[in-house]
Amino acid sequence: VFAGTPDIYGPGAIEAQSSLIVKHPKYDYSIEELGGHDIALIK
């Protein structure tokens, strides 16, 4: 799932900033800056 700052796009989309672990009722987003882009990995 690709993300643009600060919006995360994907199932149960939420707003987050890079370098944060964001808790979501259905998903845990691990967000890391990669190649100048914020990548949201759904665990």
TrEMBL record:
Reading the lineage from the top rank, the first entry is Eukaryota
Name of the protein: Uncharacterized protein
Q: Which organism is it from?
A: Rhodnius prolixus (Triatomid bug)
Q: What is the lineage of its organism?
A: Eukaryota, Metazoa, Ecdysozoa, Arthropoda, Hexapoda
